[in-house]
Every structure is written in structure tokens, then in C-alpha cells.
């Protein structure tokens, strides 16, 4: 027989369990799918009729009332909370409950949210069903002209934000019903101007791969006097970059006198928005000056269902973007904008993702370009995949020890302070999407570099939960996309075509440790036989993305890509242009 104390204990435990069960059931986040919800049809357009919905449902909780929660999710210290679940064939008019099973960031689970007042919002990032050319059927979020950003992608559904209170048990004080009543509107088309113009073509190669029409585009900065000199033919400088349908760093008017100064957390500068406008206007003044060389700057747009950029190479998961750019887009650009159209008159430059692309395009298509200016490139040697050796390390998240594991940093400031860990970055991506569908950095590296996995999506290089590296996949990366390894394997054939063309710049204190891979690349280039005649330079105390200017800090030099490599490019043209080359029509 139970004692009185035991009876009270059992009663208390029963009450606690009952209360927890009632809380789990009664205090929840319920997201209502509209009765008229329409799925995405081919090409990212909304279907004509309601139907089953696929996508990533994101619940957002923010304790900062200054902006909508969907605009406050990032890798930074001030990020707000995100919880994600995948919808696969959800019925219009149905209700979806978001609970502790949702992938979470930066918390481990929804129940870990501290007590307090929050603004709540939900966003549904819609997926389209792709019937791939090879027979695969996969579901992805197509780019809809926004550069693969879920929080502004046209057609995505979202709720109006409102305030709630989270109690001490980590749950809302009352049931929270969220209605996806809003839809992100289409993006207004941008008109061409005197200097900034656009071109868009359908790619037969990519259309065949993806099983639906796929388009490539480019934004072109044309030289002063372009229309007044119809007989001139111009050198072309391919600016590899993330998705961008304009040239914000080019401005034909002085800075806005009514501009309210902001503060750049990255560069610790007050009024950085005004600095940007000032430098953009200076670029315009340089661009139209009498003695400045006339050339085309081409910024390609290859946003895709995995990321805001394709990485400009052929890929098992993304398709033949390299060939499509080189054989379809660039010839179309050169024809429309009167480029010289020969390898000696084409150059590459870019930073970060663009830096990797600049080097990859020069290495994979060595005859197509006459030089690559490679700033702060993404890992060019996977022995230093940021700070991970994917060939030797067992785990991407931890450095093993005898009695404990040390967290691997993923991002740092220039003084070496860790800003986020490898595990944290991948937790962020896992909240945004499963199967490599986050639209973020590690998932696009995986999509570009990996073979197709058994489920039809990119084969994981490491487990998102544990960090365990798959060395079979790592070997595939080594054979196909490790740029240093490719140079090592093929140097006897590549050296005559790359001699003097590689210029690599990175900060010693790059935010993502990208200098580590450049050290390994430099070791090869300096020992190469025959010699590479390459340039490798480092910026002392320089974080991401130092681009080779020793006279200015990053905050300024990053605004001068269009002009900073011009002297070296002009020198290269003088040294290598064929005797009968056109080196005068564009020097008006």
C-alpha cells in the first residue's frame, strides 16, 4: 500500500505529465494552408487551379520588432529563430502543426525558445516538381528572378506578422493559428540604360538537362561612346559574381544628399551607404574619362534551383552550365555587344564564389580567356575545404581529441574570434531545407561537386547531423573539381595555355579560412615545372574578401573591381595580341 507521501508524489507526477501532454496538444503553432493555394507549375509560375502543395514551411520567431521576421534570418549573431519542415503534397485548406520535430536554428528545437514576447511569422517556400532529362523526378524551389532567396521569392506564401508570448515552458501562452494570407509579388522588370544593358537566352543544353525551359542571362556594362562608335569591337571582361541583375557599383549621379547614413557592421564604418554611392559615382567618372580603355564588363546570371549561381562548370546535379555559358551565352553576348570574340581579348575576374569561378573557367577552358584575377576564392584545394581536409578528416564539425572534441570554426573576424561553427552553419542550412535544398553555401558546394545520390538529390559529402565525412564522395570531388589537383594531374598539357594567366589574391585572415587552400595552391604553382609564372598575393590583417589592392582596405577596394585590374589586362593585351589583332577600334 502506498504511503501518503508516495500517493502525493504519484499524483504530482501524473499532473505534470497530464499538463505536459495538454500543453503539447493545446499550445501549438498551427499553420493554415489557404483553400485556394496553387502549386508551382513548370517555370516557377503558379498553377491555374488549386492543388497539392510542396515546399518548405518556415516558422519564424523574432524578438526584434524593427522588421518582419522573414527579413531577420542570417548567420550573424543577431539572427532570429527559424524552424523548418517539408511539405510533400499538402492539401489546400489543411492545417500543419510545427513542433519540436522541426529542424531548428539557432536553437536546437522549438521548445528551447526563451520566455518572452515575440513576433511570429510563417513563410512557405514553394517547390516545383522537375521531371529531369535523365528520368529523375525531384522537387526544388526554382529561381523566380530574385536570385534564390526564399524570403523574397515571387509566389511564396507568408503570413502577416503578429505578437505572441512564449511561457516558461517554452510554449506559447495560447494556441497560435497562422494563416498564409499573403503572396510575394512578381519582380518588376528593369529597363536598360545608356550604360547598363541586358540579354536573356534560352539554353538548349540546360533545357534538355532540366526537362523544362532554362534561361541564361547577362547584365552588360557598355563603354562610353558605345552607340556612337558602331564599328568598334571591344575586349570582354567576365565579372564572375553572385546573382546580380545590375551594377550597383556604377552610378551616373552624385550621392543622394538626403541619404540617411547607415552603419556597416562588417567594416565598422559609419555612413557606408554614402561611401558606396560616392565610389559608384567615381567609377562612372573614370568610365567616361577620355583616356580610360573602352571594354565590356559582363555579369552573367545563372541562378538555379540550388543557389543564386551555378559555379560556371558542368555538374551532375546542376547540369552543363560550363558548356552552356561558354558555347551559348558568351557568343550571344559577344554578337549583340560587338565584342572582339577571341581568347586574347577575354578576361575573368571575381571574388569569393566569383573568384573560384574565375579560376575554374580559366582552368577548364584555358584557351577561352587570357587571364583570371582570382580574389578570395572559395576552396581551390579540398585539403583545405575552408578548414576541413575532406580527404583525411573523419568529421567536418569536430577536431578529435583523446577525451573531448573541439568545435571547428566556420567563420571568424580578422582577429580570429569565431563567429559561427561548422556545425552551426549546417544547422542553419538544415532548417532552411533538407536534401540539400537550403539554397545556401555548403549545399551548393555539395550540389556542384557531388554525384547524384540514390534519392535523386546531391550525394552528401558529410552527414548534416553528425558531420561524418563520406570519403567515397570526397574522392569524386578530388577527381572532378579540386582545382589544385586538376593542375597537378594535367600540368604538362595546361601549362602552355595557363602561362602567366593566374593571379590569386586573398587576405591572411580571410573570414572563412579560404587562405588555407590558397597556400596549398601557391605551393604547387611555385614548384611547377614548367613554371606557372603566376601571381599570388596576400593582404595582411585582411578578412574576406581581399582582392589584391594593397593601398586600400576591403571596404573600398571591393567597390573597384571594374577598374583595378585594367592596367595588368592592358599590359597582357599588348604582350599577347596577334599581329593582325584589333587593338585600336576600341581606343577612341
TrEMBL record:
Residues of the signal peptide: 1-26
Superkingdom per UniProt: Bacteria
Keyword Phosphoprotein: no
Entry keywords, A to Z: Signal
SUPFAM superfamilies membership: alpha/beta-Hydrolases
Residues forming coiled coils: none
InterPro entries: AB_hydrolase_fold, Mycobacterial_A85_antigen
Protein name: Esterase
Organism: Occallatibacter riparius
Amino acid at each position: 500500500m502506498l504511503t501518503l507521501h508516495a500517493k502525493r508524489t504519484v499524483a504530482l507526477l501524473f499532473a505534470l505529465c497530464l499538463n505536459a501532454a495538454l500543453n503539447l496538444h493545446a499550445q501549438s503553432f498551427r499553420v493554415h494552408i489557404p483553400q485556394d493555394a496553387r502549386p508551382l507549375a513548370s517555370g516557377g509560375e503558379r498553377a491555374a487551379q488549386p492543388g497539392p502543395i510542396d515546399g518548405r514551411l518556415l516558422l519564424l520567431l523574432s524578438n526584434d520588432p524593427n522588421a518582419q521576421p522573414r527579413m531577420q534570418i542570417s548567420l550573424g549573431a543577431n539572427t532570429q529563430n527559424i524552424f523548418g519542415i517539408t511539405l510533400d503534397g499538402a492539401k489546400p485548406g489543411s492545417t500543419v502543426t510545427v513542433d519540436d520535430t522541426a529542424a531548428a536554428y539557432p536553437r536546437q528545437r522549438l521548445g528551447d525558445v526563451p520566455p518572452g514576447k515575440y513576433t511570429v511569422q510563417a513563410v512557405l517556400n514553394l517547390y516545383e516538381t522537375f521531371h529531369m532529362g535523365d528520368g529523375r523526378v525531384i522537387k526544388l524551389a526554382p529561381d523566380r528572378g530574385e536570385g534564390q532567396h526564399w524570403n523574397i521569392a515571387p509566389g511564396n506564401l507568408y503570413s502577416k506578422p503578429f505578437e505572441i508570448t512564449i511561457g516558461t515552458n517554452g510554449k506559447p501562452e495560447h494556441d497560435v493559428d497562422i494563416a498564409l494570407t499573403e503572396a510575394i509579388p512578381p519582380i518588376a522588370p528593369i529597363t536598360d540604360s545608356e550604360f547598363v544593358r541586358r540579354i536573356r537566352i534560352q539554353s538548349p543544353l540546360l533545357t534538355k538537362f532540366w526537362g523544362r525551359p532554362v534561361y541564361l542571362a547577362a547584365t552588360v556594362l557598355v563603354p562610353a561612346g558605345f552607340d556612337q562608335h558602331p564599328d568598334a569591337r571591344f575586349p570582354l571582361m567576365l565579372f564572375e559574381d553572385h546573382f546580380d541583375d545590375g551594377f550597383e557599383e556604377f552610378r551616373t549621379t552624385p550621392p543622394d544628399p538626403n541619404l540617411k547614413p547607415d552603419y556597416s557592421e562588417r567594416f565598422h564604418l559609419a555612413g557606408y551607404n554614402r561611401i558606396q554611392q560616392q565610389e559608384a559615382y567615381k567609377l562612372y567618372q573614370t568610365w567616361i574619362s577620355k583616356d580610360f580603355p573602352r571594354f565590356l564588363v559582363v555579369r552573367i546570371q545563372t541562378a538555379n534551383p540550388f543557389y543564386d549561381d551555378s559555379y560556371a562548370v558542368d555538374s551532375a546535379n546542376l547540369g552543363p552550365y560550363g558548356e552552356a555559358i561558354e558555347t551559348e551565352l558568351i557568343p550571344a553576348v559577344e554578337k549583340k555587344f560587338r565584342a572582339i570574340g577571341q581568347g586574347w581579348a577575354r578576361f575573368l575576374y571575381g571574388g569569393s564564389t566569383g573568384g573560384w569561378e574565375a579560376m575554374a573557367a580559366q582552368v577548364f577552358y584555358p584557351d577561352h580567356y587570357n587571364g583570371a584575377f582570382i580574389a578570395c576564392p572559395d576552396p581551390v584545394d579540398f585539403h583545405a575545404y575552408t578548414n576541413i581536409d575532406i580527404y583525411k578528416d573523419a568529421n567536418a564539425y569536430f577536431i578529435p581529441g583523446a577525451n573531448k572534441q573541439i568545435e571547428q570554426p566556420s567563420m571568424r573576424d580578422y582577429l580570429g574570434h569565431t563567429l559561427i561553427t561548422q556545425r552551426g552553419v549546417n544547422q542553419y542550412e538544415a532548417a532552411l531545407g533538407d536534401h540539400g535544398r537550403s539554397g545556401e553555401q555548403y549545399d551548393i558546394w555539395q550540389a556542384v561537386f557531388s554525384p547524384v545520390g540514390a534519392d535523386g538529390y546531391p550525394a552528401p559529402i558529410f552527414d548534416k547531423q553528425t558531420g561524418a565525412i563520406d570519403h567515397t564522395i570526397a574522392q569524386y570531388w578530388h577527381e572532378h573539381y579540386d582545382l589544385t589537383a586538376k593542375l597537378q594531374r594535367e600540368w604538362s598539357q595546361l601549362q602552355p595555355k595557363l602561362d602567366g594567366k593566374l593571379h590569386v589574391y586573398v587576405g591572411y585572415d580571410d573570414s572563412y579560412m579560404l587562405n588555407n587552400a590558397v597556400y596549398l595552391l601557391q605551393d604547387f604553382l611555385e614548384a611547377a615545372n614548367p613554371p606557372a609564372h603566376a601571381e599570388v598575393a596576400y593582404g595582411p590583417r585582411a578578412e574576406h574578401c581581399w582582392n589584391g589592392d594593397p593601398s586600400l582596405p576591403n571596404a573600398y577596394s571591393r567597390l573597384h573591381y571594374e577598374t583595378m585590374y585594367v592596367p595588368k589586362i592592358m599590359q597582357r593585351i599588348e604582350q599577347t595580341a596577334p599581329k593582325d589583332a584589333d587593338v585600336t577600334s576600341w581606343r577612341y
